[in-house]
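Carbonic anhydrase
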Amino acid sequence: MSQEAIQRMLAANQQWAEDVQRAEPSFFEECAKGQSPHTLWIGCADSRVPDSIITGSKPGEIFVHRNIANQLKLDDYNALSVLRYAVDYLGVEHVVIVGHTECGGAAACLGAAQNPSLDLSRAVATVPSLPAEASLNRWLEPLTRHTASLGLSSAPHAEALPVVVEENVKRQVENLANTVTITEAWTKGSKKGQDVYIHGWVYDISTGILKDLNVTRGPPGKASKPARA
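Tokens:
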């Protein structure tokens, strides 16, 4: 296997570190003292959606959790641990669920949902080449079931996929609002005293622009506070 890509990344990192050190001599020293991110980004693992780059952010500004199709599940201890740490111990003010256009996970779920042979009374194999109990299919099954409920069975794929992407983000924002971490922050106050707001965005890969879906929620009785992209 070619090692060119690996060597290229290591060389680019060396150049980047030298450039940053030259421009901001104290940058890495300050980074080593700790982090104070303002936002937790829960996004898709897609390589075309690099959170820091598309928001013009520096290291230390965004705490990140990414997975297939930007899911926030109430039984996912990985994501829930990230959320708890970000809110209670890092003091983030914003938690953003970020989907994106041309999402492969959402597209797979749409394809499965539009399949006339879909049987929701059984475990769903969203990726038909894998058994239903495969980890990828178990991960995607809730989104496939949700997609099947959207009434898109006869809609053209190009028209239906953006709907699935946006509805998925909205559903994950709702899940986020129902986590223990967020409900406690809203009802009892966060451990660090900051107000916490949750948001839903979609990144358009074809334009590079983030779209706010206007589903922001925050502590009861307080106006919505826009996240800093």
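Residues 36-212 form a domain with the Beta-carbonic Anhydrase; Chain A fold (CATH 3.40.1050.10).
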